Amino acid sequence: MQLCCCFGLKHQFSHKCDYSRLNLHSLNAQHVSTRSRIFKSRVNMSSEAVLTVRLVRSFEHRNFKPVVLRGVNLDQKVEDFIAFVKNDVSTRSGLPPPFKKFDYDTMKIIHQAHGAKTNELVMSLEDDEKLILCNGLDLRSCGIANETELAFFKMADYEKYKANPQTVW
């Protein structure tokens, strides 16, 4: 048995931290729980995330612009985040004026990190009950994590497009 310098565990392998040879099935339950605890502490478990918000101006014309927001607090309420994004968009340089002045009011999850993407070019029209963010909840409880992509749009335009999903071009 040799003491592993990274895990602080004694196991049956004699190597110098070559974890590609580490066989997890041979470790006992104590080693596995200690190992997962160590990895969880190393993973960024902070409440801040990088989110991409897709500003959807027109569903029919597929007119949208992505905006990357860094350091977003996942413990804030949805309505606070919407107000923050509206303020950020209105003052952000590099966005055309029509995107800055548009009346966005609803957010929906488009894609989460390491998940499947939709074939829709703007956003999926299914699972509105699960994916549209509800006011009064914090972002984390809505299912938002680091590297989540969101759509920010006007609900009246979305309902009109959902009733007749035809694109102009």
Description of the structure:
The chain contains 5 helices and 6 strands; from the N terminus they run E-E-H-E-E-H-H-E-H-E-H. It is of the alpha+beta class and 169 residues long. The strands form 2 sheets. It has a 4-stranded mixed β-sheet with strand order 4-3-6-5. The chain is globular. 17% of the residues are buried. Mean pLDDT is 78; it is low at 1-44.
How widely separated are the two ends?
67 Å
Low-confidence stretches: 1-44
Characterize the main sheet.
4 strands, mixed
**Main sheet: strand order:** 4-3-6-5
H/E element string?
EEHEEHHEHEH
Instruction: Name the helicity range.
Output: 25-40%
According to DSSP, the number of beta strands is: 6
The radius of gyration over CA amounts to: 22 Å
Structural class assignment: alpha+beta
Shape type: globular
Q: Report mean pLDDT, rounded to a whole number.
A: 78
Q: How many distinct helices?
A: 5
| Proportion of residues in extended strands | 15-25%
Characteristic key phrases:
6 strands; globular; alpha+beta; 27% helix; four-stranded mixed sheet; disordered N terminus
Brief description of this entry?
The protein is 27% helix and 22% strand. It has 169 residues and is of the alpha+beta class.
